[in-house]
Amino acid sequence: MPTQELISLELEKREILGKSVKNLRKQGIVPAVIHDHGKASNIVMGKYVDMLKVYRHAGKHHPVELTIGKEKYTALIKFAEFDPKHNQLNHIVFNAVNANQTVEAEVPVHLSQDIPAVKAGLLVIHQLDHILIEALPSKLIDEFIVDCDSLVEIGDKKTVADLIAPDGVTIITEPEHTIAIVEETKAQLSEESEEAEAETETDDAKEESKTEGSEK
């Protein structure tokens, strides 16, 4: 279903550029930029706590209402850079969107609970955790929940083709992409390997016994 929740964020104009932005981060400020349909980019900044909260809440699929003084934008987060050492938010790039034009967005894909294959002791590999969709900003959705009741035996799988998009939403990701597939656990594979090895050794012993008997 389309999300109706409003996510808003207040930003300020930013004059500090280049390497000097390190000083902003030390002060608990995150630098950002807003791209606006071929117009000059708006260089901005915001409080770390507010920026991180919005990123976690909106991801790359939920419109954010941005306010910079008297200017207002509806935007999607295009990119968020994190410090790999401390996992701290370093920078955000916003893309301004038009309410009357469709936009592309990455939407998370989650598996339903109580998967039969998992209950049976098998392994379910979640191979695709985001898909690309297209919709008007007001029609964007927060997530897809995949019904996994049919994941029962080894080889059973769910693909993008199994997803049902709500009205106004187009799935761009190729339909043949696998979302989840049932496989054997490492322990099961190891057990099968040991059984196969034991059978081979038994066959070799029988063959060797026959050979010794014929030689006598």
Structure description:
- The chain has two domains: 7-97, Ribosomal Protein L25, Chain P (Beta Barrel); 106-188, RNA Polymerase Alpha Subunit, Chain A, domain 2 (Beta Complex), CATH 2.170.120.20.
- Helices cover 24% and strands 36% of the residues.
- The chain contains four helices and 13 strands.
- The strands form three sheets. The chain has a six-stranded mixed β-barrel with strand order 1-3-2-6-5-4.
- It starts with 6 loop residues before the first strand and ends with a helix.
Tally of DSSP helical segments: 4
What strand line-up does the widest sheet have? 1-3-2-6-5-4
Reading the helices and strands in chain order gives EHEEHEEEEHEEEEEEH
Helicity level, as a percent range? 10-25%
Distance between the termini: 80 Å
Please specify the SSE layout and strand pairing.
Elements: E1 7-13, H1 21-26, E2 29-35, E3 42-47, H2 48-58, E4 64-68, E5 71-82, E6 89-96, E7 103-111, H3 116-119, E8 123-126, E9 130-135, E10 144-146, E11 157-159, E12 170-171, E13 178-183, H4 186-215
Parallel strand pairs: 1-4, 2-6, 7-10
Antiparallel strand pairs: 1-3, 2-3, 4-5, 5-6, 7-9, 8-13, 9-12, 11-13
